[in-house]
Amino acid sequence: QTRRTPFIAGNWKMNLDHLQAVAFVQKLHWTLKDAGHETDTVEVGLFPPFTDLRTVQTLVDADKIPFALGAQDVSAHDSGPYTGEISGAFLAKLECRYVIIGHSERRQYHGETDEIVASKVAAALRHGLVPVICVGETAEDLETHGASAVPVAQLEKALAGLASGSEVVVAYEPVWAIGSGQAATADQAQEVCAKLRAVVGDALGADAAARTRVLYGGSVKSGNIARFMREPDVDGALVGGASLVVDEFAAIIRYQK
Ligand code: PEP
């Protein structure tokens, strides 16, 4: 089996301004250092609001802090008359490596369809960013179609037409588990993540499927992360609420299987 570096990603959503971000990132870095955390065992990704990115990038660069940086969204367009949009080119210039695309909050509150998600995934790749593609079923979907049908269909549409071997990260985030305190079970996560990996295989090829990190997200905490990480097809977590509390996020990063 291909070794995949586990990826723990913190989605700050609309929390922490750029000054709070500096204090947070420094504290997280020192908490991990004090605990003797080995930085190459797990990749840590931070996804702050756009307005924090420049500040956080300067800080991690100057202090050689080993966190990867990502944005929470990107425009489908490269430049031009799109007021309020942020180009992938700008994110790449800020040394962002990742961008979250299709988070359920964007699908739900900002009308992002599968077509929009697919065009944003293509835009991210055009600019050398790795899209973190979020898929997941609502409680209603779960009842009518079971757990995997909706996320599988969402991922198929997000990957359609991409070059084989394209680098992506997939995040399985059941909508009912996000911010609810009710995480999926490890078995549920494994079952859907394995199916999503198969979708990556069909769309991007067997090598890409073996290399691609598939994350679980939805009420991940220090108390349940290890359970997910023991599953063969779960390669990390996309963490919302718990990524805003330094000690809790550090404990998630330091999970022990
Ligand atoms: C998220 O919104 O991506 C998420 C997983 O949130 P939480 O961890 O708070 O459930």
UniProtKB/TrEMBL annotation:
<feature type="binding site">
    <location>
        <position position="179"/>
    </location>
    <ligand>
        <name>substrate</name>
    </ligand>
</feature>
<comment type="pathway">
    <text>Carbohydrate degradation; glycolysis; D-glyceraldehyde 3-phosphate from glycerone phosphate: step 1/1.</text>
</comment>
<keyword id="KW-0963">Cytoplasm</keyword>
<feature type="binding site">
    <location>
        <position position="219"/>
    </location>
    <ligand>
        <name>substrate</name>
    </ligand>
</feature>
<keyword id="KW-0312">Gluconeogenesis</keyword>
<comment type="pathway">
    <text>Carbohydrate biosynthesis; gluconeogenesis.</text>
</comment>
<dbReference type="InterPro" id="IPR013785">
    <property type="entry name" value="Aldolase_TIM"/>
</dbReference>
<feature type="binding site">
    <location>
        <begin position="11"/>
        <end position="13"/>
    </location>
    <ligand>
        <name>substrate</name>
    </ligand>
</feature>
<feature type="binding site">
    <location>
        <begin position="240"/>
        <end position="241"/>
    </location>
    <ligand>
        <name>substrate</name>
    </ligand>
</feature>
<dbReference type="InterPro" id="IPR000652">
    <property type="entry name" value="Triosephosphate_isomerase"/>
</dbReference>
<dbReference type="InterPro" id="IPR035990">
    <property type="entry name" value="TIM_sf"/>
</dbReference>
<feature type="active site" description="Electrophile">
    <location>
        <position position="103"/>
    </location>
</feature>
<comment type="function">
    <text>Involved in the gluconeogenesis. Catalyzes stereospecifically the conversion of dihydroxyacetone phosphate (DHAP) to D-glyceraldehyde-3-phosphate (G3P).</text>
</comment>
<dbReference type="InterPro" id="IPR022896">
    <property type="entry name" value="TrioseP_Isoase_bac/euk"/>
</dbReference>
<comment type="subunit">
    <text>Homodimer.</text>
</comment>
<protein>
    <recommendedName>
        <fullName>Triosephosphate isomerase</fullName>
        <ecNumber>5.3.1.1</ecNumber>
    </recommendedName>
</protein>
<feature type="active site" description="Proton acceptor">
    <location>
        <position position="173"/>
    </location>
</feature>
<dbReference type="Pfam" id="PF00121">
    <property type="entry name" value="TIM"/>
</dbReference>
<comment type="similarity">
    <text>Belongs to the triosephosphate isomerase family.</text>
</comment>
<keyword id="KW-0413">Isomerase</keyword>
<dbReference type="InterPro" id="IPR020861">
    <property type="entry name" value="Triosephosphate_isomerase_AS"/>
</dbReference>
<keyword id="KW-0324">Glycolysis</keyword>
<dbReference type="GO" id="GO:0004807">
    <property type="term" value="F:triose-phosphate isomerase activity"/>
</dbReference>
